[in-house]
Amino acid sequence: MSARRDKTMSKTHVTTSVNGETFEFLAESRETLLDCLRNHLDLTGAKEGCGTGDCGACSVVVDGTLVCSCLMLGVEAEGKSIETIEGMADGNELHPLQRKFIEHAALQCGICTPGILVAARNLLEQNPDPSETEIRYWLAGNLCRCTGYDKIVRAVQDAAAEMRGAA
Amino acid sequence: MRYHTPASFEDASAIAASASGVTRFLAGGTDVLVQLRSGMVIPDDLIDVKKIADVQSVERTEEGGWRIGVAASGAQLGANTALVAEWPGVVEGMELVGSTQVQGRATLTGNLCNGSPAADSVPGLVAAGAMVHVTGPTGQRILAVEDVPTGPGKTALTKGEVITAITLPPRGQNGGDAYLRFIPRTEMDIAVVGCAVSLTLDGDRITAARVAMGAVAPTVVLVPDAAAAIIGTSLDDPALEALAAAATAACNPIDDKRGTVEFRKDVAGVLARRAARIAYERAKG
Amino acid sequence: MPKDERIPTSGLIGTRPNRPDGLDKVTGRARYGADFSMPNMLHAAVVRSPHAHARIVKIDASRALALEGVKAVVTRDDFPTGMTGETWNLQENTIAGDTALYDGHAVAAVAATSALVAGDAARLIEVVYEPLPHVTDVDQAFAPDAPAIRAGAADHSVSTDEGEPVRPNVMRKTEFGRGDVEAGFDAADLVRGHNFRTEATHQGYIEPHACVAQMGADNKGEMWVCTQGHWWIRRMCAAVLGIEAAQLRVTPSEIGGGFGGKTTIFMEPLALALSRKSGGRPVKLVMSRSEVLRATGPTASASMDIQLGMKKDGTLTAAKGVFRLQGGAFPGAPVGPAMSCAFASYNLPAVQHLGYDILANRPKCAAYRAPGAPMGAFAVESLIDEMCQELGLDPLEVRLKNAVREGVKSSYGPTYGRIGLVEVLEALKAHPNLSEPLGPNQGRGIAVGYWFNHGGETSVSVAIGEDGTATVSIGTPDIGGLRASIAMMVGERFGIAYDDVRVNVVETGALGVNEPTHGSRATFASGKAAVISADSCIKQMCKRAADKWGIDEEAVEWVDGAAQPAGANAGEFPPMTMKQIAAKMGSTGGPISGHHETNMGGVGASFGAHAVDVEVDPETGFTKILRYVVVQDAGRAVHPSYVEGQFQGGAVQGIGWALNEEYVYGEDGRLQNPIFLDYRVPVASDLPMIDTVIVEVPNPGHPFGVRGVGETGIAPPLPAVANAVARATGVRIRSLPLSPPKVLAAIKANARAKATG
């Protein structure tokens, strides 16, 4: 945020695509991709819940692969194509997962919701008809402390069914 | 922290050899970034190996084995149906590391070099007889995977050395491997005990076997006595009991927040039996 | 509230509309504590003690202050002296004085131009410590020879009688009960007593504490913070900093979970102090996960000695409990509530409680969902289950036999009004899960739980918009669907559409004092106050109609969203809708608003009963949850989906507490598992679906019959899972968590004991 810089930390210019748009930012080498998304690109949908890759609240998709953005450096985003929660809806049209999460009350405090939605969408892109077990194991790296996961799993199942029906 | 993106292993090795201070290589980053963020290890030089050619590739060797690039992720390994068919134990070990998200980045090489005694991918590699290819200031060498970890957080690599690939031997006919671990939840835990078994059959009889245990000693342990207990048998109950006893005897575990000495010894035997059964079924096809 | 003005509703109550903040939360737009930034903002980092107990000899910040980008460092010297009581405790916990009291205790803080620089600067602050003897275990801390953490701080309840050993870490002793317990035991056919232990757990909210704070040299300030209760945060920060509360304006962000852990301050005054010291620049302070686990407010660990007397037919004759809880290095362990709830489900002729609030070198405990209740439930419900096994009785029938009903005097004093324990037990008994067949190594456990719920200070305001919509200002942050429920209650009361009501959680400057969203009170208390405020608006709107019609105010009634003459005698006038009245309100008397401030009464308690089936691997001690059902009395479920959500969330936190969650301290007194890797909360693959049954025994004290539901659900799972494991393995374990090493060791010991006869 500040223009000042410590002499021992030089910044790298990074060009990357996020949700289909090209962005540029300056990254300290020690900043994670999560730091850069939140602080340089104002994309605060991804959250830091743990900083150790254990909670999944920072989940994004990089070149089609689901990752924790807290486990990538900002400088590693160069030339990559990143998808965050902010790109999940198509303008004002919500993705079926987003709609189903609201309908099923699959969120209470909502802090884990962006990460879970990004992870669930990635699952359904690879496996349009996952079993309950497959959903639970895919989402094992997305912690939710409020819901006990029940309504989350039901929302994913319902969205998957709708997407299969529409396909 | 200086961030480097060398284009070759020679360059990577040279940077590491001449660096003073704390140096780390970066492949998947799922250990390095955690240690960086927590302040445990803040490298002065971070050498990203992902711009080097072929680091993500997973391909056959001439002998019919496999060459796995240092930046091939767990997800990529799991998506390689041929590799999974031949070495399911190796792949399932790697696939147990962390979450789906971690799988998207984590690598065999990183899991090995982080030097955790509980690393999930290492017992399977050891049981498979994997080799590690290294380049460094004094040239190239090849080590057996079990010779790489030397203690918790430590490897046999010297300053300036970098791993360039991991290779698996040809599976051959009638072979099967498996990796099991014990964790208190269903996911997201560090192995309290890990066991990998790789074996080859002739009819019903086991003609060759390797058994490796993780998380029960300062490094992964290759247990020749456990293999000897089942070689020449059809994995009947006495063989399984002897296997379990050998696995338990090979343990030199600690009491810690994940398990007691007694628990680890008991479960080592249980997992050895269960992993051997799975490997046996897989070998039978 | 007159009896006949209650309950039946039409339209909104009991339906499941989309929550109003849903769109923001599924798109990532919702702004949580760390999502806020201000111009010219600095970032803070905190220096924390690596010792469980140590004298702070020296703090040298010179190298940190020399780092480019560092703007200020604060220590305890930057805070006022002379505090007493709980304010002193809060200040001492915010930043250490001359002694570090636990691993993670803050000793200094720094503000710098970036988070990385702040972190580097924190590492450059040199602190010299002189380690002192420490104690972390509750029973060891209770011992007379334990290292004294705060000499002379016990209150008047701790006797200094001769013959009583002096226990330096006991801060308070509480005794209460009634009846002749010894006679009760004499009358029993079976008397059993055991020690039960639970370990400390953390609320585990996924959002770490975060704030952006700004304060000038004039001690006027503002803060954006994730909190369950911003008036409490304001009061506590002001007290600790020695400033006036009114000059501090606190705005709550969206909150990423709290469960009680965000009802108090931890690092907020540090951000304010740093801001003032840096010339009034805003300061952002975000905790890391390991800071959250080490240095916020986990719950207490407990050691409980419970004794029960039971007749052959299952009737309980007497109960006695001694409860030792440590709440960290400060008084305030939830011993009182633990004791109040422990036997509360049972109609007992005689009961005695003795409780000790004990210090240990651990972080200052905070509330965690029904504080104290899960510990007592684990002990009592396990012991009842054991005794049922011994007497060959059905555990559910024994609960029914002894269940409290309306008019019964509770174990902790009050006489019950209308309660629903019997209805809950009957509903559980009828649930299909209870007839599922069980296979080898499988077992079923049941348990009940209780939480008394809370009213508390409440201020709400409802304003009518020019277009006839309603804006509700509440002071209880929305943790899990509250705004939806409030909008439903207000919409129902006015007789207008759900979407015509907007509910805002407003900052401290906009309402009178509100207690936090805790005590399962928000839907109950803010809801009731909102309804009363709406009633006030309705009265004013009726008056506007009456004035227009030239009739008496009393002759106008409000029906289906409009004012109309109350009966033919009042006159023949067409109804005036809220929209019509609002459109003219500027010229008919001015803006229309209703408000209500009170210490909310009419609280209704909530009972719950759970059943769980488990399978235990006899070779590894691994427990798998096969099926789980929660039955609980909600009084009236305004929005059933969010009531179910509370049931399921509480159950899963309880399952985690029962199976894997615990604070692990080393010999050195340091927390060994400060990250989610080894602090093991349940993950999605650990669980099946959680079935729920909402029982509705309306609470007479609320216009729609609402009872708080958020907390009760965490108490039954601890004993239910323990009971299931006991029945699956044949061996009873009386300490939590039921980690696999513990379970396997117990299975093996049991097998050895059986083998040797």
Q: Classify the beta-strand content of chain A into a percent band.
A: 15-25%
Radius of gyration of chain A: 17 Å
**What percent strand of chain C?**
15-25%
- Strand arrangement, major sheet of chain A: 2-1-5-3-4
Give the SSE order of chain A as H and E letters. Answer: EEHEEEHHHH
List low-confidence stretches of chain A.
Answer: 1-8
Largest interface: A-C, 66 and 65 residues
* Straight-line N-to-C gap of chain C: 65 Å
Strand line-up across the major sheet of chain C: 3-5-1-12-9-10-11
Quickly give the structural class of chain A: alpha+beta
Q: What count of helical segments of chain C does DSSP give?
A: 19
Rg of chain C, rounded, reads 27 Å
Distance between the termini of chain A: 44 Å
Describe the structure in brief:
The complex is a heterotrimer of chains A (167), B (285) and C (757). Chain A has 167 residues and is of the alpha+beta class. Chain A has five helices and five strands.
Features:
heterotrimer, B: 285 residues, alpha+beta, five-stranded antiparallel β-sheet, four-stranded antiparallel β-sheet, C: Aldehyde Oxidoreductase, domain 4, seven-stranded mixed β-sheet, five-stranded mixed β-sheet, 19 helices, 26 strands
Question: Would you give an account of this structure?
Answer:
The complex is a heterotrimer of chains A (167), B (285) and C (757). Chain A is α+β, with helices and mostly antiparallel strands. Chain A has 2 domains: 4-87, Ubiquitin-like (UB roll); 96-166, DNA polymerase, domain 1. Chain A is 32% helix and 16% strand. Chain A has helices at residues 33-39, 96-103, 113-126, 132-138, 150-166, and strands spanning 11-18, 21-28, 59-62, 65-68, 81-83. In chain A, strands 2-1-5-3-4 form a 5-stranded mixed sheet, covered by helices on one side. In chain A, helix 2 packs across helix 5. The longest helix of chain A has 17 residues, at 150-166. Residues 1-8 of chain A have low confidence and may be disordered. Chain B has 11 helices and 14 strands. In chain B, the strands form 4 sheets. In chain B, strands 4-5-10-6-7 form a 5-stranded antiparallel sheet. Chain B has a 4-stranded antiparallel sheet with strand order 11-12-13-14, sandwiched between helices. In chain B, strands 1-3-2 form a 3-stranded parallel sheet, with helices on one face. In chain B, helix 5 (88-95) runs antiparallel to helix 8 and helix 10 packs across helix 11. The longest helix of chain B is centred in the C-terminal third of the chain and has 24 residues, at 261-284. Chain B is globular and about 55 Å long. The termini of chain B are far apart. By secondary structure, chain C is an alpha+beta fold. Among the domains of chain C are: 372-453 and 604-756, Aldehyde oxidase/xanthine dehydrogenase, molybdopterin binding domain (Aldehyde Oxidoreductase, domain 4); 456-600, Aldehyde oxidase/xanthine dehydrogenase, molybdopterin binding domain (Aldehyde Oxidoreductase, domain 4, 2-Layer Sandwich), CATH 3.30.365.10. In chain C, 29% of the residues lie in helices and 23% in strands. Chain C has 19 helices and 26 strands. In chain C, helix 7 links the parallel strand 10 (221-225) and strand 11. In chain C, helix 11 (373-391) runs parallel beside helix 18 (717-729), helix 14 packs parallel to helix 15 and helix 17 packs across helix 18. Chains in contact: A-B, A-C, B-C. Chains A and C meet through helix 2, helix 3, helix 4 and helix 5 of A and helix 1, helix 4 and helix 17 of C.
